[in-house]
């Protein structure tokens, strides 16, 4: 199903990079052409330029995203400064709990995962660095919606509250009640709302103007994690990181 | 100092992304124009397209790299599969030592850092995720040059062995002796060759065909790290990761 391809040459080239989804490893030229709507000869010519730049790499069967994108991606200042400042605190939390530790930001209507610290004893869960989950279904997302500007919640509600599990909060009224509790507590909670069997607790990271710029969370097994007991540790890490971000 | 700008529109657009160096946070339109050799009106038009794609973000004073690049960079399969498989082993090493733990690959003539686990008690050192150091000056690089295909060493020697510290090995003959010792030991050692006061030990990660695809290293203070004592831990982690990569 080809959709109309972008008009400009630059946008066409970039659309070839965007054709790779979160779980794609490699795509053939035919797939790239179909996903972007570009005729095969055009796709072929632009792909060759992307290969020489390093944004794509040729494989036996087609093409995969190339190391140049990874290197550039690590230079993105918004993630770099947060990640560098956060890592020691995330490591402390990991060492104290051996659960999944996340650093997240709000992006569009999603929780975007900037960093994930995990180990052999952590429960395997779906989150991945650079990946997303709908904000209303995550502990971090509730922090952003409860403590961020009202436009965040408007955008999320307007986009529709998609259901991920039987426990996802999909009614705007119930979500607002949950967010009021988040404000009162000072941390967000997710009880199997993004993934069955997985719970999480998240606390806000503020900048020097007290704007919420990120969240720190712990996620793991619903049978093992005592969220109320873990909340102070998460809040302490988020407060320490806030102080560090404010002083930079 | 403008150099001749790339010919094609796609290459011109990509050159604007490549204008951001490892430590740049934001660049003005004038800087972007100067670094790429593109006339200001052309740069302005292409920058607008990159902003709408998300590869650049507008700031008060200019432009910075955008989150789309971070998200795409995390989809690069070569780093993603290695990073995902390695993280538990890197965390184990970190917890056992509290030093800087690296996952690296060979790229062009450099050691490219795919992951770095570090904490409050680790010595602050120059390495950063997505960053590079010349291969001949790092413990991981010596692993790649000693155990990888001969073309690696040829490329590095042809490029010239740059000096980073008083201890960097800059004579090809001495480097070959060091690599022979690396083969005999099975791990690489860096004694203040990339950064004064910093030493490191690195072990190879193999794929199912016994090709070296990555290295795991520990780096820290020259006064504190006993490299011979740490080598078995690094080798054990690299072997476990090799087994996991071979089974995928």
Task: Draw up the topology in text.
2 copies of one chain form a homodimer.
Chain A lengths: L8 H10 L10 H8 L3 H14 L2 E3 L4 E3 L1 H7 L3 H21 L2 E8 L2 E8 L14 E3 L4 H9 L2 H10 L12 H14 L2 E4 L6 E9 L5 E10 L5 H21 L1
Keywords (chains A, B): DNA-binding, Transcription, Transcription regulation
Pfam families (chains A, B): HTH_IclR, IclR_C
InterPro entries (chains A, B): GAF-like_dom_sf, HTH_MetabolicPath_Reg, Tscrpt_reg_IclR_C, Tscrpt_reg_IclR_N, WH-like_DNA-bd_sf, WH_DNA-bd_sf
Polypeptide structure, described:
Chains A, B: Keywords: DNA-binding, Transcription, Transcription regulation. Chains A, B: Residues 68-247 form the IclR-ED domain. Chains A, B: InterPro entries: GAF-like_dom_sf (IPR029016), HTH_MetabolicPath_Reg (IPR050707), Tscrpt_reg_IclR_C (IPR014757), Tscrpt_reg_IclR_N (IPR005471), WH-like_DNA-bd_sf (IPR036388), WH_DNA-bd_sf (IPR036390). The structure is a homodimer of 248-residue chains. Chain A is of the alpha+beta class. Chain A has 2 domains: 9-72, Arc Repressor Mutant, subunit A, CATH 1.10.10.10; 77-247, Beta-Lactamase (2-Layer Sandwich), CATH 3.30.450.40. Helix content of chain A is 46%, strand content 19%. The first copy, chain A, has 9 helices and 8 strands. Chain A has helices at 9-18, 29-36, 40-53, 67-73, 77-97, 139-147, 150-159, 172-185, 227-247, and strands at residues 56-58, 63-65, 100-107, 110-117, 132-134, 188-191, 198-206, 212-221. In chain A, the strands form 2 sheets. A 6-stranded antiparallel β-sheet of chain A has the order 5-4-3-8-7-6, with helices on both faces. In chain A, strand 1 (56-58) and strand 2 form a beta hairpin. In chain A, helix 6 (139-147) packs across helix 8. The longest helix of chain A has 21 residues, at 77-97. Chain A is globular. The mean pLDDT of chain A is 94. Chains A and B meet through helix 1, helix 3, helix 4, helix 5 and strand 4 of A and helix 1, helix 3, helix 4, helix 5 and strand 4 of B.
């Amino acid at each position: 199903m080809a959709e109309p391809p972008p008009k400009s040459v630059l946008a066409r080239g970039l659309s070839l990079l965007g054709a790779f989804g979160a779980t794609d490893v490699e795509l053939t030229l035919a797939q790239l052409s179909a996903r972007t709507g570009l005729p095969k000869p055009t796709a072929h010519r632009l792909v060759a330029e992307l290969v020489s730049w390093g944004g794509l790499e040729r494989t036996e069967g087609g093409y995969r995203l190339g190391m140049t994108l990874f290197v550039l991606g690590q230079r993105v200042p918004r993630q770099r400064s947060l990640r560098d400042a956060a890592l020691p605190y995330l490591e402390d939390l990991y060492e104290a709990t051996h659960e999944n530790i996340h650093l997240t930001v709000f992006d569009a209507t999603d929780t975007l995962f900037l960093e994930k610290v995990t180990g052999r004893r952590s429960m395997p869960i779906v989150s991945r660095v650079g990946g997303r989950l709908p904000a209303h279904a995550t502990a971090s997302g509730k922090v952003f919606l409860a403590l961020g500007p009202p436009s965040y919640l408007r955008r999320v509600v307007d986009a529709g509250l998609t259901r991920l599990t039987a426990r996802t909060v999909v009614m705007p009224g119930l979500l607002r009640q949950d967010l009021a509790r988040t404000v009162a507590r000072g941390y967000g909670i997710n009880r199997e709302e993004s993934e069955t069997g997985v719970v999480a607790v998240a606390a806000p990271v503020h900048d020097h103007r007290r704007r919420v710029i990120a969240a720190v969370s712990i996620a793991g097994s619903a049978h093992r994690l005592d969220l109320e007991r873990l909340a102070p540790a998460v809040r302490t890490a988020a407060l320490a990181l806030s102080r560090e971000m404010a002083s930079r």
